[in-house]
Amino acid sequence: MPVTLPGAYLELVLLSLLLLPAGLSLLRGAEWALRRTFPLSLVERALLGLYAGGGALYVLATLPVPFFGIELAVAFFVLGIGGMLVIRVVHRQPLLPRALKEEPLWELGLLALGTLALLAIELQGAAPLLLPNAWDGSADALWVNLTVSQHTLPWTLEPYAVAGVTYPQGTTVWFALPVILFGWPIVAAPLYLPPLFLALSVPATYCWGRRLGGVDGPWGRPVGLLFAVFFGVVGGWPRLYAGGSYDLELAFPLFLILLGGVREFVRAPPRRWGEILAMGTALGVLATLSLIAAQALLVVLLGLIVLDHARLLQVLGRWVLRLAAMMGVVALFLARSIAGIVVWYGYPAHVLTQTGGSLTTPPLGIAPFGVGLLMQELDPFVPFKYRLSPFPVFSVILQLLLVLGFACVIWVCVYPTKGLARRFPNGFISTLGATAAILFAWTFLLSFGQAPGETASAVRTFSNVDETSYLMFIVLAGIASIPIVAGLSVLADDRGAHRQGVPARPASRTPIRRPWLLPRESPYRWTVRRAALAVGMAALFAGGALVTVVEVPGFLTSKIQSIAQATPEDLVALGWVGSHLPGCSQVLVAPGSAGQFLPEYAQVHLVYQMTPTPRNGSYATVVTALTGGGYNASTRAELEELGVTEVFVTGVTFPGYAAFDPAILAGSVDFRELMSVGDASVYAFVGGSALAGCPPA
Questions:
Q1: Global pTM?
Q2: What whole-number distance in Å separates Cα of residue 342 and Cα of residue 40?
Q3: Given this model, what pLDDT does residue 611 score?
Q4: What does the pLDDT read at residue 367?
Q5: Which DSSP string do the residues of 43-66 spell out, in sequence order?
Q6: What 8-state DSSP symbol labels residue 184?
Q7: Nearest in space to 19 (alpha carbons), one of 278, 204, 196, 142
Q8: How confident is the model at residue 618, as a pLDDT?
Q9: Cα–Cα dist 25/96, whole Å
């Protein structure tokens, strides 16, 4: 049944509440086993509990036992409640560490309201859409389809396509939950579930900021709240990263939480083995959602280890075995994918049967390597930089703040004991600066993978410079927050300059004719300065809140529609295939077209491009002929080789991939039109049915 906006809102909140008991029980159980309490704030514990619940369900779904379904989800919730009772009654431990009960309710209430408000805005952006991203969304929908029907994660794409599955399926488990619990259509899950994680970026950035400010220090909560507001209404990402890679969207909150704790984690003395295994588990859960986010976090961890230790031998002695243990835990979470790569990766684009001609490597679908690419991915000072913010005014504001932030970083590094350094929490500047430098260097290295050549192609297979760049710009936005943190310090200082060690000026009986030229130690100048600063910060945040409420839903809709240009006629054609074509049909669909969603509407076999490269040569030849002309007897032979019985035609759905030209099919005797509505149509490949042994439509 269709998903309504209010229904999706309530069901997403309910889904979070259903997973929390088991996740919190797992966290407390780990603490009990390790005989120590993790130093987590209440917000961190809640978010990590949510991911722990999802990670546990992922582990269960990877087992080759067909029990992943509503029964398991309900049992998981019940066991979570039972686990909390066991912890409380049997082991006589509080469900939450005693220190967490001191968290101020007003602060937690503000974070909860901000998260719920942003969730409503994010869902409004998704509501007008018909289908998700035609590239990533169609793959996720197919994986969910197979998981729901087979009650375990798919090993191959049969019966829809003869291809192996190698990518980690953490997002598949999350997308499957609202489908099996609330009856969502499969294609709705990639549309309506990511807004939950984009909204959770508000409390996640709070956790990041609080860690940078010192989780237990006087700076922790103020910096955490400032980060939550800054990234919730001013910063561009991650709240606006919509319509692209769904795995990165689901990974954002966990990435931000771990990013906040990584500096503390790598500092001496070396962490105990229990903490190493715990960090490895968190990295493993992150990797099941997004390999790119896990890569970036691991690079930051390694970079900080090197920067925090002056002697290389000291680094090797203390960290090699610990890092190996962490990577071993991560490998356990990725065991299914590692096995899939070993088994399937040698096949052309993971297609398990030898169909079609020789392998081909497609041309680059991105900008040529060079200055233009570096400006797009790396340079934050391009005018109206999109990666800082898609809203030009805020992009310029963030660039100005970024200049001031870099100036503060340089000043504090050169003069670590001067007055400006005392405006910031200990380690705040150095951690942000080091993290930004590490991610900048990593993104720069990955940018060379965009160049032609086999080595660059291998780099592209296991990394993504575009997604890594967005993670880097999140940290750059953190640098842009440095002047605001300094302003917060000034506003919190009610002593005034005249009480900061400056001798008081003797009282004078001579009236001051020009009050704006008051001496530096005057409390009046201090008050005026603080008032101007408060007004400026309030204007920035108020303007960001206004834009978020008014402009963001429309931006999100247009952003997703730019890569999901499905029409109502496309849905009609998808439904027609489901009700008219037999299950033995082998339907050719164009890459990136709405036809890739056919498995969610019909029990037919697909003939379409799988990733990564290299790809099937026959498929490439056919697509070139049906999109750009040149259809001939050789093309017909390739269609027969692929076993095509029908061709599904729509307009351009995903930019960068051309649609099949219906004029080419209509002008050849090899095809017969079966149905047509708007820009969508279905053609029978004459002779294809007989060759495939499938009754003609």
A1: 0.91
A2: 38
A3: 58
A4: 42
A5: HHHHHHHHHHHHHHHHHHHHSSSS
A6: -
A7: 196
A8: 80
A9: 10
